[in-house]
Amino acid sequence: MNKFEEQIIICKECLKGISQKINNNGVPSNNINYQNLYNELYKLSELLPTHLTIYQKRLRDFILPNLKMRDIVSYNQWGQQIIFPCTGINPYTLGEVIATLIYIDENKHEYDNIWVNIHPCIIQSSQKLFNDAHYAESVEAAFLEINVRIKEIIKLKTGEDIDGVPAMQKAFSVNNPIFKLHTDIISKTGKDIQQGYMELFVGAFRCIRNPKAHEKISITKIEAIQKLHFASLLMYEIDKAKINTL
Q: Are the CB atoms for 81 and 73 separated by under 8 Å?
């Protein structure tokens, strides 16, 4: 359990205590001090992951500023302003807190099942690195797996020992491909599909795999998820391709 998940539990316990005071003891929310709930919600807002950004903004811009009841302002007989400080919880905002926390709790693991549709070879090469928060390395490992697979088949078929962009160009060449991605690569449709996938493979190695292999690049969790899905798509296309007899 990470700090984000722990903080959700703390906030839920805090709300549970407030609910017990309201429902069991008949204490109105505006008589319950807001400070503890405010502090815990603020901590939670600092820990929300990127996919819950909209609720981070809701906490910071609406809920936290309005959690405390407004101070009561009055005037005495001489027209002097008198302020009666309030430290109670705004009941309307409390409802927003409950609804928001339920949504956050239900969606905290939105990306935990990212592996359901990922190619088994990519899972094997990248899952541990990803789970250990080595996001750039997990992506590099995925494209290395693709490279190794293509390289081995090229060497088996032609005897050539090439990898990276040259390997992708040779493997998916429109004129004499090793991997045929359409049953009829003589037709315009077949040529377009073959050319398109060759460009996808080449582009992946030019702009994703090669820069990471030569430079220290940092990427976010979401960027890693997007690139791993792309690597998986390419690996599945390799599975579907027909190996051409040269």
A: yes
Distance between CA atoms of 155 and 174, rounded to whole angstroms? 19
- What's the pLDDT at 46? 93
User: How does pLDDT run across 69-93, given as a tens digit for each residue?
Assistant: 988 888 888 888 888 889 999 999 9
Q: Could you give the CA distance from residue 28 to residue 16 in angstroms, rounded to a whole number?
A: 14
Beta bridge partners of 33: 88
C-alpha distance from residue 194 to each of 59, 185, 188, 203, 205 (Å): 49, 7, 10, 14, 17
pLDDT over threshold 70, residue 210: no
Name the token pair of 222.
């979401």
In the prediction, which pLDDT does 215 show? 62
Residue type, 103: Y
Q: Which token pair is 123?
A: 């899972």
Contact indicator for 112, 196 with CB cutoff of 8 Å: no
Q: Which is nearest to 167 in space by CA: 147, 143, 193?
A: 147
